[in-house]
Write a structure and sequence with these properties.
homodimer; alpha+beta; seven-stranded mixed beta sheet; three-stranded antiparallel beta sheet; 12 helices; 14 strands
Chain lengths: 349, 349
């Protein structure tokens, strides 16, 4: 099954129309479309259009809110806690990072916890918002319980991801994000949707046995990054998101595919204003490190050292020209939903 | 070669005398001894007494400073940058966490970057200081360049560790720390000191080949946790410590064993006051998560789910009673140095 190629601008315009059809105000629809297109352009397709059908389902069933009223729960000099009222991540998650940046501008570092976001989406996108003000952005997100604790067999702990964005003078934005599972769960969902197998070491089946069947893996638990260390990181990130925002433990989220129940994720956004904090040229220090790292002797079998974000930026630049490749099933889902909400369809380029 | 057992109190008293013999004021000597004994008691012996000979060497050669003048470089409402004047970590690293906690008490979150600490030591110890005020503590430390970048063969990036301490009502303190290498470099040094081999996957030799020879691994590069992800984390932690504190890139540190040159590490301490930030009972939320995690169905081959810090606390409690086991070579080094600085020797219990 070959991919269908669509232009990035056409995809952005389509998704904006579709989100408007789902009840979002124009500006918020544009933000949601931008986050999803950004994921596709960077090759983070686990958080791209494959997610759209579930977002649409939730918005139509009222388990995600197209017009949230974001509420401030606590407001301290360098910290706020917001309730996202089940709004879309591109709307309420972006707001959290903006609040963290406002706090950091005043205090050096700033943080904003968010509860009850309908999802987080591509977390690197939120961290990268800090780069617009030449700040460091860090975003830790909760996720539905899909990891077993180390030595356990129940889906309890989210494969809670983290993203870092670091200002520099490089041609590409330095962005690193990772889930605390061996791979992001979206890749298992994508493989399951495409009927493809998954490598060993990604997931366990519902009984706790290793599996290469993506459909079984999607029903079972993800395996943590690096064994016990990934379990520890995921649990700490739960304490920094679910517990710190009053969102309830990761295990209390419904399954991602169960659109009948509200999916209410927490996140913690942190911004640091490095120029002021250092009292010097932070970006020059980052550039110096990048220069040294890229000049390393190569290990056998490699032809280049890459900085996190560099490969994604190349994919981004290439896909801006050549278009985004969507699985036929994903493309079909997009147009089925567009027809249902009365939005103009997406055309292959 | 069997271990030699010493009582924790006797070890603490001995190390205090030895650090005083090396020129530290009494209170600072006590802090240094406490950090090192804590590492031994918790089973983090890679950061215990095996490190003492190099600390002693540095203090005697003037490449570490027994009486540092800590200087404040920048001071913002929620953030400070300190220069540690090559002081011992238990002194200047603790000071950084205390400043972060003072900032957090005022602003919700607080951070303190530190440059020119002579070392960081057992990083969980510094994070756990936050628990005294029922705060969350996070410490990220720089390390000397000992990881190659992904696809490279040069020692450039520190296996920069992170530690989290989370307040709760559990009987054990929740503390999770990890290096971004597959294992902490101290375990390679410990194996090299004991003439023991290391498992595959821990280190590469100086030419970039996999090795099980601890001595070669100690001269080569450590392998990152989880491949590319560990590389990404280590580099982000460098940007948050070395670059953010103006400490110079990780690669610019001398080798740990080269005591002729100052070893000047950076760290970033972050404290969050969770009760105020949440406006509710944070510790109850953590307890609820812990209860759920510990109640998980077990996977085959496991008889218990442990929370990070729980196993270390059991080792701690047991070793408080039964004593700390030191390798004969390490025990010998301690008493050789004690004799040199005129401190009373350590006796086996």
């Amino acid at each position: 099954m070959s991919d269908i190629t669509v232009g990035a601008d056409a995809l952005h315009a389509f998704l904006t129309r579709a989100y408007e059809g789902l009840g979002l105000p124009g500006e918020d629809a544009i933000r949601c479309a931008a986050q999803m297109v950004d994921a596709e352009l960077r090759g983070v397709n686990s958080h791209g259009c494959v997610r759209f059908p579930v977002f649409a389902d939730r918005l139509r069933r009222g388990t995600a809110n197209p017009r949230p009223s974001v509420r401030t729960i606590t407001d301290l000099p360098a910290y706020s806690l917001l309730d996202g009222d089940l709004g879309m991540s591109a709307v309420v998650g972006s707001r959290a990072m903006e609040v963290a940046m406002e706090k950091a501008a005043a205090a050096g570092i700033g943080a904003c916890a968010l509860r009850r976001s309908s999802h987080t989406g591509h977390v690197g996108y939120l961290a990268a918002l800090a780069l617009q003000k030449e700040m460091i952005g860090i975003v830790i997100s909760g996720a539905t319980g899909n990891l077993a604790p180390w030595g356990g067999a129940d889906r309890l702990i989210g494969n809670n991801p983290v993203a870092f964005a670091v200002p520099s003078n490089q041609e590409f934005p330095i962005i690193f994000d990772m889930a605390t599972s061996k791979v992001a769960r979206g890749y298992v969902l994508l493989a399951a949707r495409a009927g493809e197998p998954i490598p060993e070491g990604w997931a366990l089946d519902p009984e706790g046995n290793p599996t290469t069947d993506a459909a079984l893996g999607a029903k079972g638990t993800m395996l943590p990054l690096g064994g016990y260390k990934g379990y520890g990181l995921a649990l700490m990130f739960s304490f920094l998101t679910s517990a710190l925002s009053g969102n309830g433990f990761d295990s209390e989220q419904p399954d991602w595919l169960d659109a009948d129940h509200p999916f209410a994720l927490p996140l913690l956004a942190i911004a640091i204003d490095p120029g002021r904090c250092l009292g010097g040229d932070y970006q020059a220090a980052v550039d110096d490190a990048v220069r040294q790292v890229k000049a390393s002797r190569l290990a056998p079998g490699f032809d280049e050292i890459r900085i996190p974000g560099e490969g994604a930026h190349r994919r981004y630049a290439a896909a801006l020209k050549s278009g985004v490749g969507l699985k036929e099933a994903v493309f079909g889902d997009l147009n089925r939903i567009a027809a249902e909400v009365g939005a103009e369809p997406l055309a292959a380029s």
